Amino acid sequence: MFSSQARCSGHKRKYADRTGSLGCVGWFIVIISGIFAVILFPITIWFCLKIVQEYERAVIFRLGRITDRKAKGPGIFFILPCTDSFVKVDLRTVSFDIPPQEILTKDSVTVCVDGVVYFRVSDPIASVANVSNADFSTRLLAQTTLRNVLGTKNLAEVLSDREGIAHSMQSSLDEATDNWGIKVERVEIKDVKLPTQLQRAMAAERSGAHSSHRPEPALFDLQVIAAEGEMNASRALKEASLVIAESPSALQLRYLQTLNTIAAEKNSTIIFPLPMDVLSHFMRK
């Protein structure tokens, strides 16, 4: 709370510097503009009278300086022609998707992660005066923050602690965008896509665990999962070879099935299948 008050006081000091005196020449121009607006009142009323909606605020600049420490609105407000200009700021909550990011985790596993961020403008003056495009800057910062936060997590934490990662991202984004007048309200991790090799290794491990009636194992490191998957696959191949050795026709059927699987792949290899009876003569030699 103390740090928040300190940041607010820092913002006020910045605004105080911006809302300094216009000088003699500036006030002279403002007075001339006011006299001009009064003389041509029926016409200039359409240029002086402005309206902002309930969810909007107007930041007024007079000769390039912010006229007040507080934004105008909602409702009707007046500006002087020729000397005043204003910028409308939308205070409603805005959401955007973080594009999928290829991230290397702490345990050297590449994952593809995307998310969504909800934010709103809490200080209209800071969002206009301190950053050129608050919305675009927040989007870019969210992408880099996602990479930085997930780079400190291992794969198990990425898959199991999404809520903690989202909270950490929200805190980092909120602190970084405070000077821009942006309040990050919520961050959500939408999807975590694993590499195909890791998915196959995990599927093989899960299949081996179910076949041996063991409980679902915890998530191991990529190398451990791949090694256990290879071991289970080797055992299954050994059992299959014993069955095939007892029946030559089973070997022929397995051979044809393998050819069918290879032919289904999108490649340019041409395979000429030969009967096993022809090959068996050479195999005996």
From TrEMBL:
Keyword Membrane attached: yes
Keyword line: Membrane, Transmembrane, Transmembrane helix
InterPro entries from the UniProt entry: Band-7_stomatin-like, Band_7, Band_7/SPFH_dom_sf, Band_7/stomatin-like_CS, Stomatin_HflK_fam
Family: Belongs to the band 7/mec-2 family.
Predominant location category: membrane
Domain Band: 47-206
Domain of life, per lineage: Eukaryota
GO cellular component, one term: plasma membrane
Protein name as catalogued: Erythrocyte band 7 integral membrane protein-like
Subcellular location: Membrane
Chain segments annotated as transmembrane: 21-47
SUPFAM superfamilies linked: Band 7/SPFH domain
Keyword DNA-binding set for record: no
